Amino acid sequence: MSDKKDERIFGQIPDTKVGQLFRDRMSLSTSGIHPPTQAGISGAASEGADSIVLSGGYEDDEDYGSEIIYTGAGGRDPNTGKQVSDQKLERSNLALAKSKIEGYPVRVTRSHTHNSPYSPQKGYQYSGLYFVDDYWRERGRSGYDVWRYRLLSFDEHPNVSTAGELPHGSDNTKRAKTTIQRIVRDTALAKNVKWWHKYRCQVCGLALETSAGLYAEAAHIKPLGRPHNGPDVESNIICLCPNHHVLFDNGGFTIADDLSLIGLDGKLRTLKKHTIGLEFIRYHREHY
Amino acid sequence: MSDKKDERIFGQIPDTKVGQLFRDRMSLSTSGIHPPTQAGISGAASEGADSIVLSGGYEDDEDYGSEIIYTGAGGRDPNTGKQVSDQKLERSNLALAKSKIEGYPVRVTRSHTHNSPYSPQKGYQYSGLYFVDDYWRERGRSGYDVWRYRLLSFDEHPNVSTAGELPHGSDNTKRAKTTIQRIVRDTALAKNVKWWHKYRCQVCGLALETSAGLYAEAAHIKPLGRPHNGPDVESNIICLCPNHHVLFDNGGFTIADDLSLIGLDGKLRTLKKHTIGLEFIRYHREHY
């Protein structure tokens, strides 16, 4: 497993497919789906986790198919496999938490040794992409603290609702339950912009400190997608805290040609290497 | 059409189904899918919009099936149907914007008069639930400003990506594009809590002012869904700005029994009628 930044691949690996079987960990590793040949989690704290293998090693794992409650790594006796101390939110556990706050997809593979109706009869089966919906600490069956993660299948959770609150179907209450989503598209270039600004909001300077690291959102100035068809280039992206992102996307403020803010006091914070496209700012100003 | 607050139904109407046909606007209205018998948008600025009918009245509408670019109401000559003045973000147009910031589902019905391959041959066909992904102003074909809305089908946009950035499928770049989601579940009770607090964050007192009205998020203290199975009751919900919601859900701060904040200065702002369940706060403190 290499930790070189440019080599970690998030998402689908070319020339592999969901449901594909692998004889052993070595062939799974060679495929690129899960590079490490022993560790259950592929990832680094600073980069996020890109893949996990469910192998039955943790007594606390729960597998519902498109929803998995996964247990973090560490704290086990290497000989007995028993939990003998608390797990910490560090290394690969922190990597999975980082994947949650960044929204990175995580490849999931099931081993035949994982006790679940979704496991293959032998070898390893790639189950597709999941995302980390939540992470938390709890007292495991062993009596020691473990870190746990809820992973949800991308394919089988249209608009996601773990609480069964998707607003169609059996809702017969007068005041419907609803599901809200704030979608933030985060591309490779958006990652660069957040990195350049050290996750500081270009409006207020704030970087949110979570237990999984700093958090910010990348906002496209001229939106992606039709009919706007803004480009995914760094000069069309700004780094914002969630509050200023909501305001920017919903008419709360806009930006003048000299980068002073309209609707808020102050001026957009900039960096020399991060040029903002005036044509994108003008588009936003005219439309939002 | 009644605007009485308790009578507006968001989401699926009991005893109706997607694909169902209606002879005319009256029978569509009687079904409850689209109560108004003339207006294209069912909604009120203060409550949000619950339903639209695509009838071909606006030359700027674009229909891609699971994605619709819809044009707001107003500014047309009632005799010729032509756009003769700018549309404003008010009344039903504002209602659709409110549905966006609140994440409310919008029922979509297509008329045979709507020029699209997805329209029925005659009468009206209910097409299911969509959500408002974006709203903006633009110069329409007529030369006057119109408000436009991107609506996406709930069923056909698993984890939503209007820019084709869903991180599985054909991605063969080394640094994958990813899609981030922050999901906020907003139930009827959560609506109450936001309303009680006038959309002010219980940590910082801020209420975000968007062009569609005030914005806040409802956070469940003990999360919904397994394995937490927190209840959807008002004493398990707090009203937060997006920044403090991210921090609360990701280990940025928690709350002591006396409601003082741990990890941040200050104390949770409370209201007499909004009791916070200590058992939920303890659960959050032990797990996040």
Report the top-level CATH class of the largest domain in chain A: Mainly Beta
Please give the radius of gyration of chain A in angstroms. Answer: 21 Å
CATH fold-level label of the largest domain in chain A: PUA domain-like
Order of helices and strands of chain A: EHEEEEHEEEEHEEEEHEEH
Structural class call of chain A reads alpha+beta
Characterize the structure shown.
The structure is a homodimer of 288-residue chains. Chain A contains five helices and 15 strands. The radius of gyration of chain A is 21 Å and the shape is elongated. In chain A, a hairpin with a 5-residue loop joins strand 14 (254-255) and strand 15 (261-262). The longest helix of chain A has 12 residues, at 91-102. With 288 residues, chain A is α+β, with helices and mostly antiparallel strands. In chain A, the strands form four sheets. In chain A, strands 1, 2, 3, 4, 5, 6, 7 and 8 form an eight-stranded mixed sheet that branches. In chain A, strands 10-11 form a two-stranded antiparallel ribbon. Chain A folds into two domains: 5-153, SRA-YDG (PUA domain-like, Roll), CATH 2.30.280; 188-287, no CATH class. Chain A starts with 20 loop residues before the first strand and ends with a helix. Chains A and B meet through helix 2, strand 7, strand 9, strand 10 and helix 4 of A and helix 2, strand 7, strand 9, strand 10 and helix 4 of B.
